[in-house]
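Extended Data, record TAXI family TRAP transporter solute-binding subunit
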Amino acid sequence: MRNLTPKVFTGTLASALVLAAASASAQDRSDWPSNFTVGTASQGGTYFVYGSGWANLIADELDISGGGEVTGGPTQNLALVHGGDVAFGLTTMGPAADAVKGESPLAPGVPMDNVCALFPMYETPFSITALASSGIESISDIPDGARIGFGPAASTSDTYFPAMLEELGVNFERRNGGWGDLGGQLQDGLLDVIAFAAGIPIPAVSQLEVQTDVNIIEFTEEEQAQILEAFPVSEFSIPASTYETLEEDARAVSMWNFAIAGCDLPEDFVYEVTKVTMENNDKMRNVHRSAEHSIPENLKHNKVLPFHPGAVRWYEENGYEIDESLKK
């Protein structure tokens, strides 16, 4: 009988510890939202697929109701997160920089200080294409008054690429349209250049180079440095394997996409969301292949938004440093 007492005590203690842990877990969730929404963009685009899939992953892993919502994209998502209309959203560093400074077109003069960064998603490269027959082989070759297609109106490309080219002294006529349509216009001689901000390989360019000779125009080192100084973009290199036309990697810039959260969301909740996302990259890649870049090593590409305290806790616990200026 004397041997039973320690066993019974140990079992009772173990049960008590399990119950205590369960109780603590329940307490940890007491201030969690009952559900959440991720602001994405229009249906069918990368943002919608990525954001909806990520929302489903979080909902499944944390046993909480959540999903993606169709929105107007990066700029509107910042406003929705800031106002608490959605818990999470997807955006790019350009609109984020404008929002922080109170220069968002949706809320002029209102600094959006309730928007925090969560994690890096992927980068959107900026690239330039012209027909080889045009003789345009560099940005400095683009003639005054050139007709340049910048993609859909109000897109990331249309918002930032014109300003970048103006920064580099290019004078042009601005044209808008879908990438496929603009590719056709370039081939028909109705455009001189197309300035893309889109994932590579760009189908319109791949199709063009099958049908005619094209030039993929890279930035010089000086041009790249000038744009890096003036805009919230990062260095990028278009791999030579991307297009048949390229014989070597082409220098460019890119704008990073980041997931964002309301800064007032509970720290423990955001910690768990970050943990699930950063520790399940295989599942994230199943959501969208671009998520191969959704890894902590790419935190450095956010120099604009403060990171949510919950996200900071996970990163620092796992050996990733966050600059003090980017802590909320």
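Summary. Confidence is low (pLDDT under 50) at residues 1-27.
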